[in-house]
Structure prediction request, 540 residues.
Amino acid sequence: MINTLHIKNVGIIEDISIDFNEGFNVLTGETGAGKTLLIGSLAILAGGRFSKEMIRNGEEYSFVETSIYCPNHEKAIDGNIIISREVHTNGRNSCKINGRLVTVNELKDFMNHILNIHGQHDSQLILNKEEHITYLNRFIGQEIETKLQDYQEKLKQYQNLKQELKNTYGEEKEKERRLDLLRYQLNEIESAKLKEAEEIELEAKHKTMQNATKLKENLAQIDVALNENAIASISTAIRNLEKIQDCGDQYAEKLGNLKSSYYDIQEIARDFSYMQEEINFDEQEQNEIEARLDFIASLKRKYGNSITEILEYGNQIQEEINKIENLDEYHQNLKNEIHHLETEMRKIADEMTSLRKKYSQVLSHKINQELAELEMPNATFEISIKATECFTKTGLDEIEFMICTNAGEGMKPLAKIASGGEMARIMLAIKHVLADIDEVDTLIFDEIDTGISGKASQAVGEKMKAISKKHQVICITHLPAIAAKGDYNYYIHKTTKGNKTYTKIKVLNEEETIEEIARISSGEVTEIAKAHAKELRRVS
Prediction:
């Protein structure tokens, strides 16, 4: 429900705020005072087009803001949602929901569920063909709701099984493509004959070959240093100590230590000699090692970061190949379940189609009755029901509301009606019939009284009054029969100050409401006109 509307710099409106109420809010006033600008401002908040020409003369921007009471909405803060839109003369356009910037399309999608505007600024969910099946289902009620719930549960299972079949290569071409790839990968890994520590060993050999000359030179010098110098010197020292070992225990102890070192150095010298002998540079072997390391690197890029990971991946491939090659039975079971669900869903969908066809006639009849009372006796409302090829979330039906406004013309989609006045009355008829199931909180009617008078205006007023029991209704009217039914009446007028015009709005008390009804009834406030206005209020 709209609580407050704030408009700044829109047309002749400089800066006004309006507090709306529950029930039937009626706006009347002078021609050109800005009544349509109020509805246009709400249309702007609903995501409608905003022309720079709407910006008040001499100002740089226009600003529209509303506070909407939606206590159960997820976006509500303390039960309220603040919507605003600002447009500048330079083209800058900003839309906000609770202070957060949103796109115009996001604003439109959000407001479609908050308010409907009927008239020259149409922006209503009921014109959306995709929503028509929802309206019809709500009209049918519990009788179809149970079936729809059962159908949707089966549809979810059906979609999951279809996805499972796809994921497990249920389609023959997909399965063969996957098998070809896996077999190629497995053959490449197995043909490589990889060993766990192979790469480490090859890299060590490759490093040795790359440093062969350097190693040979240094190992040769080490051999000379140890065998010709160190060992010979230590041997001389040992012989000298042997000659004096009887001169004291300390000489005998040092002789033992020196002999131990002599044997250790001899062992090390032999190791270096062997290492020197093992260094044999072979260019062909080096090329083979480098080629093998490159091949292992290419496998690592494809299948893992190490030989261990590559071998593990090979095992996984083998398991997947075995699984795919033995999927036939599993796939057949899936296909049997899918076929069973298709049969059950089609049965439920056919039952829902029967219900929709039955109740579409009831709903069409009710709406046609409403149209006749609204002085559209030649208008015909129908609900088109066509079969879809695939299962959808609502069954196998495509629903669309159709209308013919004049005898001899063909049926057209509801959204194709050109006349604002016709559209408003058609929407009023539909809304009156669907008032109990329509989830939109606020309905706004502009130019609803175009081309009607007398009995029809009385019927229009009564229907809007009835709708206002379930929804907030805001209506601009020139008809006393409609104005008389308002729960809250607002008078819009304009004043001139200097060379500028300003729009003003006032909430009327009961006496002022009578005078306003009298004014729009006879053009001037006379006692007779006031008496007539009181009578209209009494019967309302």
Q: What stands out?
A: The two ends are 23 Å apart (CA to CA). The CA atoms of residues 55 and 215 lie 89 Å apart. The chain has 16 helices and 15 strands.
